Amino acid sequence: MYGKAYTPWEWQKDLRDYANELELDFFSSPFDLTAVDFLEGLDVPAYKVASFEINDIPFIRKIARTKKPVIMSTGIARLEDIDLAVRACREEGNDKVILLKCISSYPAPYENMNLRVIPNMEQTFDCICGLSDHSMGTEIAVAAVSLGAKVIEKHFTLNRADGGEDSQFSMEPQEFAEMVREVRNVEKALGRVTYDLNAEQLESRIYSRSLFVVNDVKKGETFTEDNVRSIRPGIGMHTKHWEEILGKTARCDVKKGTPMDWKYVE
Predict the structure, then answer these.
(1) CATH of range 199-264; options 3.40.50.360, 3.40.50.970, 3.90.1210.10, 3.30.70.980
(2) Tens digits of per-residue pLDDT, 184-217?
(3) Which of 10, 67, 97, 106 is the most exposed, having the fewest neighbouring CB atoms within 10 Å of its CB?
C-alpha cells in the first residue's frame, strides 16, 4: 500500500514551488530517517508524523531536532504512547507539538470518533490539538472545531472516480471548500464567554415582559391576578415583584394599560 500511495520524491520540489506560488504551506509526511533529511533539503516549515510512526522514537527525535512544528496523529496510540512521543520532542528542546485525535479506520465510523478526547488531550499534554478525520462528510470536522480543535486533516482528491488508495473517504474540492466555510462559521459563532448584551439585544429587551395594570383600579382597591399581569412591553415593574404586589391596595386610581410602579402601591 505504501508503495502505491507514496508521493514520489522527485515530485516534491515542484509541488513545493507551486504551493509557494499559491502562498500555501508545503510539507510532507516522512516515513524514515532519510526522508527527514530529504525534506530538510526542501526547507519544509513543519512535519507530520503518521499514526503508525508515533512509536518510532528515534525517528520522532530526529524530526524534533529540526525545531519545527511536529504534527502527530494518534490513531493507534495509547495514552502512554502519546506521552512518550511528546516527551521525546520536548527532551530535544522542541515544544511545538500538535496532536491529532485520529481513528485509523478508513473510512472511520462516527461511533468510534470519541471527539471529547480532543479537549482532554489538550489539557493533558498542554499543546495544540486537532483531528485527523477519516470519516465521511464535514460534520465531524466541524464538531471537532466546536470542541477546540485547531488543526483539521482531511484526505483530498480532485475526483473520487479517479480511484486511488484513499479515494473512497477523500473530499472533492467543492466538499472541502464547504467544510472550510462551515468551520469558519463555527469559529465565529463560538465567540467568547460573555453575558453582556450587544446593541441589538439591548434594543430587543423592550419586547420582554413586565407588570402592567390591565384593568382600572380605584384608590383603596386590591391588586389581584385580574388587574395586574405580566405582559409586553418591558417598561413596567419587573415580573419578580408580582407576588409581592398581589393583595396590596392602590394608593391612587390607576388606569388600565399603566406600567406598574411602586408609587401606586399603598
Answers:
(1) 3.90.1210.10
(2) 999 999 999 999 999 999 999 999 999 999 999 9
(3) 10
